[in-house]
Structures are given as C-alpha cells and as structure tokens.
C-alpha cells in the first residue's frame, strides 16, 4: 500500500492543488459563423428527484427530433436523454431577439407546467459537451457563483411564472494560428440567464433583460388552455480561458477549503486511533506474549488465561461458512472496483467531460472482477472446511447482485408509472441481467475453481475437537454495542466527504476531487482495519473465540452511521415531500449502505484474520 501511495503521490498532489484535468478528450474547432448544436439533456428537481425528458413539457420542437445514442453509464441509468432543440446558434454571431415559436398549450399541459415549476424543476442544456450554468449572486463572497442548468420558472406570492425567455452567454477562446485562412474558435463557456416575459401582442417581439417588472411576468394558471411565446437571445464574448480549463467554472461550485478540512479532520482521527492502537497492541500484546512464553518455560502447570486460553478454538470454522464466504467475496469485488475506479478517476481518465464514463467503467469492472471474488472466496471457504464449493460459488455470484437488481427492478416500476426518463428501459435491464449471468457469475465459478485448488490458509495452532464454553461477556462486548462503538471513528474520518458525494447524487452536482477521495479511502481502510483489530483483541481477551462473523459485522458498523446520516441529510438538505421520491431516495440509499457495509466489513475481517494468525504464531503452544 505504501508503494502505491508513493507512486501516486505526485499525481495526488496535482489533484489536490489544481483539481481537475481532462486528458484524452479532443477539443472541437469551430470556424467563424459555423453552426453549434444546442441540445437538451433533461429536467431535474431536487424536490421531486424524478428526471424527465426535455420534451415532456410543451417546449418548441424542431422539425425532426433526434436523440443522441445513449451510453449505459449516463444517459440510461441517470435519466439523461440528450436531444436536439430548435435553437439556432452560430459561432461568434450574436442574436438580439429570436422567437422560437408560440406554443398552444392544452389545459393538461398548463397544469403539468404549473406543477413542474412549483417543484422547482431545472432545465439542462448542452453545447459542445459543455453544460449550461446560471450565474447567481452570493451574499458570502464577491466571486461569481453558478448553479447547474436554469430554472424553469419561479413562484411568487403563490403565483407561478414561466421563464420563457433565455439569454445564452457563450464564451470562446481564439486559438493561435490559421486553418484555411480562418481563425480557430473553441467554446469555453456556456452561461444562461432565464426570465419570465409576458407579451401583450404576440406578433411583435421585444426581448427584455432580467430587470423586467413584476407586471411583465408570464403567469401560468393552474389549468386552462393558453398561448406561450418562447424567445432567446445569444451573446458571444472572447475569453482568455483555454479549452483544457473550461470545466473549472463548474467544478469550482464545491468549496475546496472544506475538502481540506475533511482531510485534516480524517488525519487527526486516524492519528488518534493509531495512538490508541499502538498503546494497546505494542505494550499490552507484547507483554502478553512475553508472559505466555515465560510461563511455558518456567512452569507448565500454571493455568493459561486471556486470549491464549482459546488457542484451541480460535480457528474453529464459523456457522454458515457459505454465506460468510459469499459476503467476503462480494466485498473484495467491491473493494477492487472502487480502488481501480478512484485511481483512474484521479488520473483524469474518468472526467465529467466523458459523460457516463465513471458509471460505465464501474459496472463493467464489477462484472469482470467476479474472477477475483470467486478466487478469494474459494480460498476462504476451503480454509473454513467447506466442501460444497458449487453452492458457495453460486451464492457468491448471486447474493449481492440479486439484492441490487431486485431493488432496482422494483423501484423502476414506480419510475415507469411516473413516465420519468430515469426509468431504465426493459432492453437495458435485460442487457444488465445478461452481463450478470453471462459474465460475472461464470467468472465467479472460474475463480472458485482455481481458488479451491489452491492451498488453504495455514493456521499456527491446531483446533480442539470439543469446543470450550464461552463465559459471560462484558456489556461493551455485546455485538450491538461493539458495532456501534466501532463504527464511530471510521465514519468520523469520512463523513464530510460523504456530504459532497450525497450532493453530487441527489442535488445534481459535479464531484471531481478524486485526489481527496483517494486519501479518504486510504484513511477509511486504515481506520476500519485498526478498529476491527482492537475489538477482536478485546473479544479474545474475554475468552470469546467466535470472531469470524463478529469481525465482519463490527468493522462494518460505520454503515449504520451512514444510514443515520442519510436520514439527517434527507430531513435537513432535501425538500422531498411526495411518496415515490422518498421511496426512491431510501431505496437507493439502502443499496449504498449495503455496499458500504460489505466493503468495510471485508476490510476489517481480513485485518483481524491476519492479526490473529500473527499473534498466535508468536506464542509457544504445546
């Protein structure tokens, strides 16, 4: 691990200092007057949490509607439906006032538009793979702040007003050199201001700015047919920002100082935990080993005590070894995927500019990591004296993904019922199931085949035939209490970063500082390993040798606090009031908590396992 950190340290420092870099994404060069495609992505709302297709509302439609071919990671699973619009924009050609169309709304369309504005829906546009953002005034800072997309409308005094006029402010960077005697233009900024504008005479167009008076606003009634004019304006401005830095505006929406505070907080927590562990393990454990070995040399008749007393039972196979091996195998699979994805994202290969690359890479990596999961699960299952390896392999390949697919399939029915673009099409669901049954599960069996032929882990002591009785334990060694106590420190080491991850998922924010995430992930590994070792040591000192399941469950205790935090985030940060968005939030959050529990539980289990093998190999056993 230290070698990996040392190799990645220069890149890590660059990420922490400068944030985000986009290698491998070729810029598009435009000539003066060349047409730009303004595409629509989707409609989103923090209140409703249900994405919708752009043309779910009665916007102006082009003669031919064309959807961009979808990729698995973004357009399908995140509900993006990238489609062309009727905006006519040319490079470095301003447009003063352009009427797109006058839409004739039915009563049902008016009602839907009224509802969407009340739910604070946001429209997301895209040009040259650059999403639009809205400048907002910040009371805390003089610097210009931005939010993603533009608001569909506003609500004032319980009246609903539609933003039917938008002003596009596009920035270009003029590259050095000429191609065919013309300059090279590159789009480096896409900002939008949206206002509500009512016309007394629909035949005469007069675009107004954002200082329009309240009486000029276009009110949308609760129902009833009406006509709505849609207009737009285009402004061009030369910018010194180069193409490689054009995403800085979007990525600067998160506060880097808070990330630094998160890292410092996590380091302090880990150092505090390391100090406690050093005091307990280095002093107490060495003293125990010296005492046990001295007793063996001086007087063999003296009675054993403490963790040495259970040496004949400590490696006794646990109950339900198939299930434990399956959970550990899934945890290893998750660990490998997360580690690889974070490293490649930190290198800039899975940037937000590559739409859906992060999620797509995670899905395909998870499927192919079934080979690693099967191998390590098989070795562990063989070590636990398991013989039904085919059933264990099937459980490893299906247990976790069955829960994930079952939950997503159930929630997808509600999305279909709401006609949301977040609903995964049936063909995509079939493709995912085929990937699961055709790639992941067979690879798990292949891994099990090779893992079962490998020699099992060697134990330094023999196991007695008759198990000894476990005495009554102290209150703090109760499984529930131990789990809650053990979960505090790992959660405290990463809860600030968890806030930014929740914001990226539920508030349509960009998450980009993967250098910070890599550090937090390393800290999480260390803290989970240390707290699991401490809790298992206390358990063995209490002459309780049932550590197999306990080490897995206790080290995953931070998942309990993640779930509690998700409830706190739901209550304090989100404004969800309807049943289906609430169900979606807690359904998907439950899957994230389960994944986090398997990850941290696996880390703690292996740390405890290697620790136990080490300490029992250091004492003399007759």
Write the layout of secondary structure elements.
Layout (H helix, E strand, L loop, with lengths): L1 H17 L16 E2 L2 E6 L27 H5 L6 E2 L4 E2 L4 E11 L1 H12 L3 E6 L2 E2 L1 E4 L8 E4 L1 E2 L1 E4 L2 E4 L2 E15 L2 E14 L30 E13 L9 H4 L4 H43 L22 H26 L10 H12 L1 H14 L5 H29 L8 H28 L25 H14 L2 H12 L7 H28 L6 H8 L2 H15 L6 H39 L5
Parallel strand pairs: 13-15
Antiparallel strand pairs: 1-4, 2-3, 2-6, 5-15, 6-7, 6-10, 8-9, 11-12, 13-14
Helix pairs in contact: 1-13, 5-13, 6-7, 6-8, 6-9, 6-13, 6-16, 8-9, 8-10, 9-10, 9-16, 11-13, 11-14, 11-15, 12-15, 13-14, 13-16, 14-16, 15-16
Pfam family, one: EMP70
Main location: Golgi
Protein name: Transmembrane 9 superfamily member
What does it look like?
The chain is an alpha+beta fold and 622 residues long. The protein folds into three domains: 32-246, no CATH class; 255-294 and 305-315 and 477-622, no CATH class; 319-458, no CATH class. It contains 16 helices and 15 strands. The strands form five sheets. Strands 2, 3, 6, 7 and 10 form a five-stranded antiparallel beta sheet that branches. The protein has a four-stranded mixed beta sheet with strand order 5-15-13-14. A two-stranded antiparallel ribbon has the order 1-4. β11 (153-156) and β12 form a beta hairpin. The longest helix has 43 residues, at 256-298. The chain is elongated, with a radius of gyration of 29 Å.
């Amino acid at each position: 691990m230290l070698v990996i950190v040392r190799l990645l340290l220069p890149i890590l420092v660059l990420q922490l200092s400068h944030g985000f870099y986009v290698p491998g994404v070729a810029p598009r060069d435009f000539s003066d007057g060349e047409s730009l495609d303004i595409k629509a992505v989707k409609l989103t709302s923090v209140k409703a949490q249900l994405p919708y297709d752009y043309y779910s509302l009665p916007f102006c439609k082009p003669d031919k509607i064309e959807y961009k071919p979808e990729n698995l990671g973004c357009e399908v699973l995140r509900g993006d439906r990238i489609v062309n619009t009727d905006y006519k924009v040319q490079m470095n050609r301003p447009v003063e006032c352009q009427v797109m169309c006058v839409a004739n709304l039915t009563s049902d369309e008016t009602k839907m538009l009224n509802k969407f504005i009340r739910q604070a829906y946001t429209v997301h546009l895209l040009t040259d793979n650059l999403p639009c953002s809205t400048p907002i005034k910040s009371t805390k800072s003089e610097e210009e702040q931005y939010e993603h997309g533009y608001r569909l409308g506003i609500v004032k005094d319980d009246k609903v007003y539609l933003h039917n006029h938008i002003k596009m402010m596009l920035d270009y960077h003029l590259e050095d050199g000429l191609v065919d005697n013309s300059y090279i233009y590159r789009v480096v900024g896409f900002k939008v201001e949206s206002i509500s504008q009512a016309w007394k005479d629909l035949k005469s167009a007069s675009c107004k700015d954002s200082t329009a008076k309240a009486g000029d606003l276009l009110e949308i009634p609760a129902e009833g047919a009406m006509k709505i004019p849609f207009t737009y304006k285009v402004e061009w401005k030369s910018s010194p920002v180069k193409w490689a830095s054009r995403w800085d505006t979007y990525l600067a929406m998160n506060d880097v100082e808070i990330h630094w505070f998160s890292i410092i907080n996590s380091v302090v927590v880990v150092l505090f935990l390391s100090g406690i562990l050093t005091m307990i393990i280095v002093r107490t454990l060495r003293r125990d080993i010296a005492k046990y070995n001295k007793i063996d040399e001086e007087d063999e008749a003296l009675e054993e005590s403490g963790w040495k007393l259970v040496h004949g039972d400590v490696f006794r196979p646990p109950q339900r070894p198939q299930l434990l091996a399956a959970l550990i195998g899934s945890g290893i699979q998750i660990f490998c995927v997360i580690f690889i994805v974070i490293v490649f994202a930190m290198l800039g290969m899975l940037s937000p500019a590559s739409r859906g690359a992060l999620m797509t890479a995670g899905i395909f990596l998870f499927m192919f990591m079934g080979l690693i999961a099967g191998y390590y699960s098989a070795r562990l299952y063989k070590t636990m004296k398991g013989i039904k390896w085919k059933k264990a392999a099937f459980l490893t390949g299906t247990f976790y993904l069955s829960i994930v697919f079952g939950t997503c399939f159930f929630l997808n029915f509600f999305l279909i019922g709401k006609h949301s673009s977040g609903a995964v099409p049936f063909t995509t669901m079939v493709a995912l199931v085929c990937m699961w049954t055709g790639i992941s599960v067979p690879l798990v069996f292949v891994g099990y085949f090779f893992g079962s032929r490998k020699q099992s882990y060697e134990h330094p002591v023999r196991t007695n035939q008759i198990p000894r009785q476990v005495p009554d334990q102290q209150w703090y060694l109760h499984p529930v209490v131990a789990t809650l106590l053990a979960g505090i420190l790992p959660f405290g080491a990463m809860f600030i970063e968890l806030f930014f991850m929740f914001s990226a998922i539920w508030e349509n924010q960009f998450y980009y500082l993967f250098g910070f995430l890599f550090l937090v992930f390393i800290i999480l590994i260390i803290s989970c390993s240390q707290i699991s070792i401490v809790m298992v040591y206390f358990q063995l000192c209490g002459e309780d040798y049932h550590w197999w399941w306990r080490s897995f469950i206790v080290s995953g205790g931070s998942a309990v606090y993640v779930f509690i935090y998700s409830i706190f985030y739901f209550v304090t940060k989100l404004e969800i009031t309807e049943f289906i968005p609430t169900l979606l939030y807690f359904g998907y959050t439950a899957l994230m908590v389960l994944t986090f529990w398997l990850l941290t539980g696996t880390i703690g289990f292996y740390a405890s396992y290697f620790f136990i093998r080490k300490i029992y190999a250091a004492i003399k056993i007759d």
